[in-house]
Write a structure and sequence with these properties.
Structural Genomics Hypothetical 15.5 Kd Protein In mrcA-pckA Intergenic Region, Chain A, Alpha-Beta Plaits, elongated, alpha+beta, 7 helices, three-stranded antiparallel sheet
Length: 242
């Protein structure tokens, strides 16, 4: 395998994985995998991770050029993801992938993740700029969940979940937690650690048996399980903070 041009922090251009999100081809994670698999070429040569795409470069995946069609408006979709669907664009290795499930006629990718056993609201798009805006942790964007655990929760559980739990060698950020029933609560997060809610509950001796996301920023879940709808222009503007 031949490589050319490694990352140059002082040079103009766009990192190759970011380029894929900007043109609406896939997420950065999916782009990294394509690069590792040798499917990506820049000007006919396989790049290394971190290579920058310069003005005039031709980027291809499996021989097909990847570029933004400026005449095509961006797509924004809200899906109520059911349990069992995996938030991946890898349609070859994961049969229960979200792309085949939604079966949209043009290329889109999920904004963030919900793990396979979780359900609820997720956004799919071909607009890489809004992906970065929504997921950037320093923006402090809220995501709200309803969580059901396997045994009763008490005041101490609610207080500890809200103030911070030690997981993944760090303490979670303070968050809003409201008890709904003896085994169910709402939680609003502004960060997105891997399997964060499940790990927080496990650290406090509880096991999550149902996890449903009901809100991302200003966008609330309002569709039936397994169904999707396009976002309105007003909703997209709110997600952008406009």
């Amino acid at each position: 395998m031949v490589y050319f041009r490694t990352m140059n922090e002082g040079a103009e251009g766009t990192r190759i994985n970011k380029y894929f999100t900007q043109v609406g081809y896939c997420s950065r994670r999916a782009a990294d995998k394509l690069i590792d698999d040798g499917a990506v070429k820049i000007n006919g040569v396989v790049p290394a991770q971190g290579t920058k795409v310069m003005p005039g470069d031709v980027v291809t995946v499996n021989g097909i050029e990847v570029k933004k069609n400026e005449d095509t408006p961006s797509t924004y979709i809200a899906l109520n993801k059911p349990v069992g669907i995996v938030c991946t664009t890898d349609t070859k290795r994961e049969k229960d992938n979200i792309i085949d499930f939604i079966n949209y006629p043009s290329r889109i990718f999920p904004v963030g993740r919900l793990d396979k056993m979780s359900e609820g609201l997720i956004i799919l798009t071909d607009d890489g700029s809004i992906v970065n805006h929504i997921l950037r942790e320093r923006n402090g964007h809220e995501k709200e969940y309803i969580v059901t655990v396997n045994r009763p929760i008490d005041d101490e559980f609610i207080k500890t979940m809200a103030t911070g739990v030690s997981i993944l060698d760090t303490f979670t950020r303070p968050c809003k937690v409201t008890r709904m029933t003896s085994t169910q609560f709402k939680i609003v997060l502004v960060q997105g650690l891997n399997r964060q809610i499940r790990r927080m509950c496990e650290a406090l001796g509880h096991r999550v048996i149902r996890l449903k996301r009901i809100r991302i920023m200003s966008l609330e879940l309002d569709i039936a399980p397994g169904k999707w709808r396009p976002l309105t222009e007003k909703e997209v503007r709110k997600l952008r903070g406009e």
